[in-house]
Amino acid sequence: MRKIVITTPDDWHLHVRDHAQMQAVINDTARQFARAIIMPNLVPPVTSCAQALSYRDRILSALQPGSSFNPLMTLYLTDNLSIQEIETAAQSPFIHAAKLYPAGATTNSDAGVSHIDKIIPLLEAMQTHDLPLLVHGEATAADIDIFDREKAFIDSTLSTIRQQFPELRIVFEHITTEDAVEYVLSQNAYVAATITAHHLLINRNDLFKGGINPHHYCLPVAKREHHRLALLAAATQQPGRFFAGTDSAPHPRHAKESACGCAGIYTAHAAVELYAEAFEQVDNFIHFESFMSLAGAAFYRLPVNDGTVTLKKQDWTVADKINFADATLIPFRAGKTISWTLEHN
Ligand code: NCD
Ligand code: ZN
Ligand code: ZN
Description:
Elements: E1 3-7, E2 10-14, H1 19-32, E3 35-38, H2 49-62, E4 70-76, H3 83-91, E5 95-100, H4 120-129, E6 133-135, H5 149-164, E7 170-172, H6 178-186, E8 191-195, H7 197-201, H8 225-237, E9 242-244, H9 253-256, H10 271-281, H11 288-300, E10 308-312, E11 316-317, E12 322-324, E13 327-329, E14 337-338, E15 341-344
Parallel strand pairs: 2-3, 3-4, 4-5, 5-6, 6-7, 7-8, 8-9
Antiparallel strand pairs: 1-10, 10-15, 11-14, 12-13
Bound molecules: N-carbamoyl-L-aspartate and zinc ion (ZN) (2 copies).
One zinc ion binds next to loops.
C-alpha cells in the first residue's frame, strides 16, 4: 500500500468560532495538525491582545487530554485599533499576526477596515515590530464582479501596501486565482500565500452541479478550472512561498442551507487527506512536506514540528453530518469517500 510520511503539519488559516461551537470542532484540527493560525473574526471580533489570550485559553481548555496542539492567535484590524495594541501583540509569544478584513468582504467582516488609508499607522507599526499582516484579499466595491475581486484587490490595495511597506511580511490568504499565484511569484520573500484544500479540489462548476450547492460556497468563491490548475501547480511545484491554510470555516447547516446562505466550507475533519488527494491529481508529492509542514513555519519564523504523520492510500467515508453545538454541520465531501487516511505515528 502506498504510504507517505511527513513532519507533523500546521494549518496556517483556520476558523474555529467560540464556546460550544469551538469545542465541537477544535479536536478535528488538533488530531491532524500541531499548530494553527486562529482567525479572529468572532462576533465581536478579537481586537485586543487580552481577548486573543482569553480566546487562546478557551481553545486550550477544549482540547482532548494529552493534546499538545498549539493555537497561534491573531488580532483583527479595525479603523480604530491602537498602535499600542500592535506593539503588545508583537511582543506576545502567543500572537503571531494581525488580519486585514476589508469591511464587508466576508463572514463577520463588518467591523473590518473601511479603507486602507485608515490603517497606515498600524501597518507602519507592524512593519517596525515585524508582526505579519494577513489579508483577506478581495476588493469590496459593489460594482466589481465577484469573480474579479481578488485581482482587483491586488491592483487596488495589495500593491500599494507592498510599495509603502516593503519589509512588512504579508500572507495573501486563501488565494484562488492564477493572478494571485503570479503576483506572489513576482514578489520577494516578504510575501507568501495560503492555499485551501477545497480550492485545489473544486472549481466554480461545483457550486452549480446538479443544482445550487451551498456547501461549496465560500469566499473567495471558487474560480474557473484554469485558476484551480494554477493553484495546484503553485502548491506542488513552487516550494517555499505557498503553504497549507485550510480556511476550514464551520457554519450551522441551517445558515448554509438558507435563502441567503453564508460563506464557508468545513474541511478540518479531513484536511491533510484532502490535500493529499489534490497532490495525487498531479502525482507529485515531492514538495508535499514543504507545503504542509515546512514553508509556513519558515515564513512565520517558528520551529518545524517534532514528530511525523503517515498518510496511507486507503478509502474512508466522511460522516453525513457532524454535531455542532445545538446544530449540525455538513462537512466537505459529506457521505462520500476520501482516498487517503491519516495515521499518527
Ligand atoms: C470565512 C468564515 O466563515 O469565517 N468564510 C469563508 O467563506 N472563507 C471567512 C473568510 O475566511 O473569509
Ligand atoms: Zn477570508
Ligand atoms: Zn478564513
